[in-house]
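Much of what follows relies on a compact textual record of a protein's fold. A complete example follows; check for yourself that the lines match position by position.
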Amino acid sequence: MSQESKSIKIVVSTGKRKTSIARAIIKPGRGRVWINNIPLEAYPIEMAREKIAEPLHLVGDLANQVDIKINVMGGGVMSQAEACRIAIARGLVEYFTQNRDELTKIFKEYDRHSLSGDPRQTEPEKWGRYSARRRWQKSYR
C-alpha cells in the first residue's frame, strides 16, 4: 500500500523592531491570525491590533488563503506590534511568489519600513549620568 504525501507550503519569517523579535509561521488556511496563541480579534490593545492587521488589509483576499501563527517576545506593546507587522508582510511576500513584485510595491508604497524594518535604536546610557543625554545641573553660572 503506497501513501501519497501532499506537500504543504509553509513559510517562516521574522520581524524586528527595537528589542522585539517576532517569528511568523504562514501556512494554508482560512485567514486566521494568532499572536502568542491569542486570536487577533481578541488581542487586548486596540492600537496594536490595528497595526498588526495592516498588511492583511493591504493584500485583500489573499489574506483569507493563509493561517498565520506569530510568536513575539521582548520590548513593549507597540514595538511587538511593529515586529509582528514586519514578519507578516515579509511572510506574505515570500508565500505568494506569483504576486511577489505586486505585493512588494504595495507594501513599499504604504510604508517603506513594512518590509525592511526600522533601524532606529535607543541610545545607550552614559556612565555617571541618569540618561543618555542628561547632565548634572550647575547653579554657579
Notes: The domain at 11-115 is CATH 3.30.230.10 (Ribosomal Protein S5; domain 2). Helices lie at 46-59, 77-95, 100-110, 113-116. Strands lie at 11-17, 20-28, 33-35, 38-39, 66-73.
